[in-house]
Design brief:
The chain is mainly alpha-helical and 147 residues long. The protein contains six helices and two strands; from the N terminus they run H-H-H-H-E-E-H-H.
């Protein structure tokens, strides 16, 4: 892929270029917002708990499309880091819920801030016309992602 996307490219070339560009941007955002070097599974699990609230290992595994054993390992690592904690299930004493700790909530908040700050700084390097093009593209990308 070239440094700039060709507006006259064929749809096939544009799809490839757009996919690569979005992938590179996402990887860069993850890198900028992950000073602890948490794995992708750990980050996804923290995000899921942040959005959905406390969940069982099995529910988290289903939501993240992984095996319960893999989710158990991820949760054990996050628990060791102090980012999640176990809570008793309110209706089933055999089950345990996992929830974010205060440190887990703060880690999510700091990652969100780091992403925004990096992206704002990167956008400031663009000229005003490029910034406007990017803003317009964001609306189109959002539309593409809608069901």
């Amino acid at each position: 892929m070239s440094d700039t996307l060709d507006a006259r490219a064929s749809p096939e070339t544009a799809v490839t270029d757009l996919s690569l560009a979005i992938g590179q941007l996402l990887r860069r955002l993850r890198m900028e917002a992950n000073p602890d070097d948490l794995t992708w599974s750990q980050l996804a699990t923290l995000a899921r708990l942040d959005k959905a609230g406390p969940m069982t290992t099995a529910d988290l595994a289903r939501a993240e499309f992984v095996k319960p054993q893999s989710m158990g390992t991820t949760l054990a690592d996050l628990e060791q880091e102090g980012l999640v904690q176990r809570r008793p299930h309110p209706t089933d004493g055999r089950q345990v819920l996992f929830a974010l700790t205060a440190a887990g909530i703060e880690a999510r908040r700091q990652r969100h801030i780091a992403k925004r700050e990096w992206l704002l700084a990167a956008m400031e390097k663009l000229n005003p016309a490029e910034q406007q093009t990017l803003i317009a593209a964001a609306a189109l990308i959002k539309r593409l992602a809608e069901p």
